[in-house]
Amino acid sequence: MTLNQSFNDFGDILVVDDEASVVEVVALYLKREGFTVRVARDGRSALDAIRDQLPALVVLDLMLPEVDGLEIVRRLRDDAGSDVPVIMLTARRQETDRIYGLELGADDYVTKPFSPAELVSRVKAVLRRARGASGSEKGERPLQYNDLSIDPKTRIVNVRGSSIDLTATEFNLLWFMVSHPRQVFKRDQLLENVWGFSEYVDPSTVTVHIRRLREKIEVDPSDPTHLLTVWGVGYKFDPG
Fold first, then answer.
1. Cβ atoms of residues 171 and 163 within 8 Å
2. 168-178 vs 204-217: helix axis angle to the nearest 10?
């Protein structure tokens, strides 16, 4: 089975943008790589397409008629509890919205104007993370530290006896750090090892994902005991 075939077996890509030229070019590049593509030109149509069939990944413009992209991410994460990966398409002036989108649970973003080839590379990288290639394919065993357990094969995380919902990127970030206890990582190192690239990505992406993980696994996210900041350097996982 080829790489493109395996991606195809994982599902289709939903491309959401109100600019016809963007939809046409992105769909063309994705189809050239063997992906099956659906498109939507407004937020309402996107939600209908998601309800009709969950895609493998959503390429989502933030500025949409009917329902904006941020609301779509929120509904995906809160209403459906879905871990469908989301790559946001944002304008440079939308930095605040970009950070908010990551906080809502988006996995990555690409800034307009963008290279279609770069976007396809991001799609592949996010799908690889969603498939858990960093853990389950290598036969790693579950890890447990006091109140936290994480299983790379089932991708189940339990905190203080209860299972928690994580996006694909959140899981892979947590697994990577838990697999290297007490080791300090710079943000660009985490981007390389978890996201698969660091070029063109704002390091604040890591900061936002760390903050989301703290909200889900720490007793007091403002005073974390597991995911610690090493000031001036980066982050580390302390097993306690």
1. no
2. 80
- Cα separation values, 95 from 51, 76, 101, 193, Å: 29, 21, 10, 24
Confidence of residue 240 (pLDDT cuts 50, 70, 90): confident
| Peptide bond connecting 113 to the previous residue in cis, omega within 30 degrees of 0 | yes
Kindly tell me if the per-residue pLDDT of 162 is higher than 50.
yes
- Which DSSP state fits 105? T
What CA–CA distances, in Å, run from 37 to 13, 114, 194?
Answer: 5, 19, 26
Exposed/middle/buried for residue 11 (C-beta within 10 Å: 0-12, 13-18, 19+): middle
Which secondary-structure segment (H or E) carries 170? Answer: helix 168-178
Task: Give the residue carrying structure tokens 């960093």.
Answer: 134
**Where does the chain show beta strands of DSSP type E?**
13-16, 37-40, 57-61, 86-91, 108-112, 143-145, 148-151, 156-159, 162-164, 227-230, 234-237
- 55 contacts 47 by C-beta, under 8 angstroms: no
- Beta strands 156-159 and 37-40: pairing type? unpaired
Q: Which residues touch 24 (CB under 8 Å, ≥6 apart)?
A: none
- The pTM of the whole model exceeds 0.90: no
The predicted-structure confidence for 172-200, as pLDDT tens digits, reads as follows: 899 999 999 999 999 989 988 888 765 65
Torsion-angle region of residue 81: left (phi > 0), alpha (psi -120 to 50) or beta? left
Q: What are the tens digits of pLDDT across the range 204-223?
A: 889 999 999 999 999 999 99
Q: Which residue from 83, 74, 77, 174 is spatially nearest to 131, judged by alpha carbons?
A: 83
Domains and CATH numbers, the chain: 3-130 (3.40.50.2300), 136-237 (1.10.10.10)
